[in-house]
Inverse folding.
């Protein structure tokens, strides 16, 4: 079954004619992802990479029944692109774009409030169900269909975990890059809930990093809810130097969030298996699954 | 991007928020002139650094003379304190161990106040909204106060669609116990702050304290303003206000080329792509007893120029005694492109230190073949932990070599790497 995306997903790409969009859409098509439409305002009526291009998401959906959108749009227009896909009731949106202004993302989160859409990102490597559907930029050749659910705040470090679980013969059910930005769509807890109910997933790998509170929230969730599958985590940034601070408001609104050590302790007390080294993520999972 | 107090207060004035008369000064004479311009004393003189906790901080050369915020009754005192601050290093709880040099002071008329409260607007990452934080007492102990008594602080989540409406202002004001006249003035100040927050793409405006003067005016006595770096492309006037004086040459180069770099204390240069990958690489080096010389994250979508700039920073760093390159190719990032850039950058930098390379992912086989042919002295590691172990060993051997001019150090290193050294 896998989560979020699969064979049934009909993908459209916003920004399909750009450098990144073209590159990744071509590879997704080559490996069997059903890319049914592109959207680029002003380029409706053209065909790009064999895919029909439309001026708006609404037109693309009407013509192709697309149900998921991947956004490859530069920062100034990215938030509007995401909102357009939310309004078109896309089931899943992935956004690769980095450096979207924070206030724009606050508006995006407001638009998500009463919708059924699951947003992955921004600043995300996307979502990938090997053998079925890839939205985003994850390398295709290191993944293989299998039983590990991956959820990650990291970018390229995720590829280590994918390659290692492939090398262990486990493979992946679905890999989700939740993105590295402060304000983002789905979080670790959302992924944990989806993986819990997914028949194909036997274990979950979490890649976290210093800063933010997503790992702590996941630990809290796992502590309060018996989880049916083993979770293995690696947290990057154990030796990250503390940054200079300005003001108190961040610490008031979000107290106690921060160090890799604190995250690791919270996760361990919630029963999560910690990989001490980035090279033992796959082997740790293989051991706990025996 | 952090703004200095004087920059923040200039913006507050533009948005109609009352601030005491004040001027920034770079020299002792300018500070005295600034005080005269503000009107009669007393005055506050305040060190302009991009960190908080100034009042309770100290200067290394005169730890007993006071912190970075001082009250002056006479112009002679302004002169004395300006002299004690300018050009000196201020240490506060927020500066980190190195402190920050004071290049400018802000001289401001001291106003008589009846109340000091706390007010801040910020991007609230937990709730994905703008939140307004208010508290009935300001001051630098605000975080501790919060932990001791939650009722002291009020966090009001704002809806970006309706903005700062009357209901939000009422709820934020409830903890402050203002008179009706004070409430009206406070509400007006909040509306101005919110407009500024939205217009200027702020991620934080903190007024600590926001004071009620004896004249009944609501007045900002301090201002901590942060602008969202992601939005600077549409805030060109603010982007020009960035103070880069405390950045190293490397950090400035990274800022101009849009990648992440900062110097660390060690001797192992780190080249990685992806922030988490760079952090994991640093963790691996530290766990093997080594000390990274830098954090460098070249974005996976970097162009040739960004790559060259990043590699140059590490390869030209005189403190670097070994370099660790750890890249997992994927997407538009190809390992063979990186290998070519690495060869060029090393040639240009005339860099002689050992380089340990770990490449995986897209075009890594081609890249390793290229490096084996063109640079057989580079050590190829099988994975990032192996690379970390070898680079720690290489840096240690390079340090030893300086003490004992023994020629066999390189072959010893090769033996260390022999299990995985595909380049030999």
């Amino acid at each position: 079954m896998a989560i979020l995306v699969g064979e049934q997903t009909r993908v459209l790409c916003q920004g399909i004619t750009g450098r990144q969009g073209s590159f990744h859409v071509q590879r997704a098509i080559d490996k069997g992802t059903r890319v049914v439409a592109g959207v680029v305002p002003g380029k409706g009526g053209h065909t790009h990479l064999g895919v029909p291009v439309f001026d708006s998401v609404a037109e693309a959906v009407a013509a192709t029944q697309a149900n998921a959108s991947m956004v490859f749009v530069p920062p100034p227009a990215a938030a509007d692109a995401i909102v357009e896909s939310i309004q078109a009731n896309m089931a899943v949106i992935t956004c690769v774009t980095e450096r979207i202004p924070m206030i724009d993302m606050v508006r995006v989160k407001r638009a998500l409030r009463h919708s059924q859409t699951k947003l992955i990102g921004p600043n995300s490597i996307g979502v990938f169900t090997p053998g079925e559907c890839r939205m985003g930029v994850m390398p295709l050749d290191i993944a293989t269909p299998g039983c590990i659910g991956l959820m990650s705040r990291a970018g390229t470090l995720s590829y280590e975990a994918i390659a290692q679980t492939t090398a262990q013969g486990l493979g992946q059910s679905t890999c989700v890059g939740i993105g590295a930005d402060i304000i983002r769509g789905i979080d670790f807890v959302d992924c944990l809930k989806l993986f819990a109910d997914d028949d194909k997933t036997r274990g979950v790998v979490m890649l976290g990093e210093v800063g933010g509170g997503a790992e702590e929230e996941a630990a809290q969730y796992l502590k309060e809810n018996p989880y049916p599958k083993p979770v293995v985590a690696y947290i990057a940034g154990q030796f990250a130097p503390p940054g200079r601070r300005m003001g108190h408001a961040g610490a008031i609104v979000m107290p106690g969030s921060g160090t890799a050590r604190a995250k690791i302790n919270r996760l361990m007390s919630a029963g999560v298996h910690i990989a001490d080294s980035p090279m033992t993520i796959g082997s740790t999972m293989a051991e706990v699954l025996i | 991007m952090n703004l200095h107090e004087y920059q923040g207060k200039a913006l507050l004035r533009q948005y109609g928020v009352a601030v005491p008369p004040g001027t920034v000064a770079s020299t002792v004479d300018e500070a005295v002139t600034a005080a005269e311009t503000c009107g009669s004393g007393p005055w506050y003189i305040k060190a302009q650094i991009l960190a908080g906790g100034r009042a309770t901080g100290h200067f290394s050369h005169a730890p007993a003379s006071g912190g970075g915020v001082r009250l002056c009754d006479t112009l002679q005192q302004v002169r004395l304190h300006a002299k004690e601050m300018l050009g000196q290093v201020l240490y506060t709880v927020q500066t980190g161990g190195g402190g920050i040099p004071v290049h400018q002071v802000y001289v401001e008329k001291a106003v008589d106040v009846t109340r000091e409260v706390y007010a801040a607007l910020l991007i609230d990452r937990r709730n994905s909204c703008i939140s307004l934080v208010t508290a009935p007492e300001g001051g630098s102990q605000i975080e501790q106060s919060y932990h001791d008594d939650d009722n002291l602080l009020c966090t009001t989540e704002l809806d970006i669609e309706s903005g700062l409406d009357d209901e939000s202002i009422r709820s934020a004001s409830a903890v402050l116990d203002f008179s009706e006249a004070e409430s009206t003035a406070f509400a007006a100040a909040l509306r101005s702050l919110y407009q500024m927050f939205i217009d200027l793409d702020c991620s934080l405006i903190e007024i600590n304290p926001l004071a009620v003067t004896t004249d009944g005016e609501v007045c900002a006595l301090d201002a901590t303003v942060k602008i969202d770096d992601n939005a600077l492309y549409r805030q060109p006037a603010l982007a020009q206000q960035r103070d880069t004086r405390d950045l190293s040459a490397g950090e400035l180069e990274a800022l101009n080329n849009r990648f992440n770099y900062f110097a660390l204390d060690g001797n192992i240069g780190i080249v990685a792509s992806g922030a988490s990958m760079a952090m994991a690489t640093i963790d691996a080096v530290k766990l093997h007893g080594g000390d990274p010389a830098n954090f460098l994250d070249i974005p996976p979508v970097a162009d040739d120029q960004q790559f060259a700039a990043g590699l140059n920073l590490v390869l030209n760093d005189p403190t670097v005694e070994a370099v660790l390159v750890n890249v997992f190719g994927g997407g538009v990032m190809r390992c063979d492109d990186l290998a070519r850039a690495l060869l060029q950058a090393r040639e240009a930098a005339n860099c002689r230190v050992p380089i340990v390379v770990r490449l995986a992912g897209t075009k890594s086989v081609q890249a390793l073949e290229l490096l084996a042919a063109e640079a057989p002295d580079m050590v190829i590691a099988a994975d990032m932990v192996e690379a970390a172990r070898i680079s720690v060993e290489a840096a240690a051997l390079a340090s030893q070599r300086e003490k004992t001019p023994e020629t066999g150090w390189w072959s010893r290193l090769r033996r260390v790497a022999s299990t995985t050294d595909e380049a030999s």
Observations:
- Residues 403-424 of chain B have pLDDT under 50 and may be disordered.
- Residues 249-417 of chain B form a domain with the Rossmann fold fold (CATH 3.40.50.261).
